[in-house]
Amino acid sequence: MDLTRMKKLLLSGILAIGFGFSAAPALAAACGNDSSGFANWVQDFKQTAPSKGISPSVLDRAFANVSYNRDTIRADRGQRSFKLSFEEFMKKRGGQAIISRGKTMKKNNASLFASIERRYGVPAGPLLAIWGMETGFGGYMGNQHTLSAVATLSYDCRRSAFFTEQLYAALQLVARGDLSVTAKGAAHGEIGQTQFLPLNVIRYGADGDGDGHIDMVRSRADALASTANFLRGHGWRAGAGYQPGEPNFVAIQGWNAASVYQKAIAYMGAQIDGQ
Asked: Which domain range does residue 57 map to?
């Protein structure tokens, strides 16, 4: 092989390698444990998301006001109430007040709860216990920008894969008109009166008031029907008991991983239902 031909082959190989690198998809931006890489991560996510079915217009709207949320990170690192005893937890959460008000709410919304029980098999008590503990019956649903919270946890290294799923679900909700891009909620991106993570809205959200949308914030019928549907999706059986050791306690365990929270739902639900 002459020298000229060898040089041409070497040059073509170098060019091929160069074009190969330029044609390869960009590597995903690394997760991070502080705000320094968040902006780059967002840009990379916006490049990748259309391949997952999220339109550029939805991405532009959704990320217009997204920022790294330090309050979310502090909340994620500082969850302590689940280490309390049952008695301490009930006191901290205002258990007796939830039971008392829950009984009144059950009476005042009897037809709604009867309809939900007919459809999903879930009685009023555990739904009211969840509603009361999560938001004080819709009184306070959080003040954190939902999309910022979910995006921050998607970027954060601790549970990046889990919250990336939540972020895609939140963007689906934006696309279908069931989540405002300015919506506010809890620190981990929980939405509405019973604090659903976005992916659970996709999986279990129910149109309880029949208006064609699932509004977890403004519609108590949607929020409560969705909660009942969640419990049914986690094994709830109509007519079975829901105390520890009974069949439906497994569904309550699906709601929250903390055993003290599970026991509180079962106890308060029974008190509200008069069991």
From this structure: 1-275
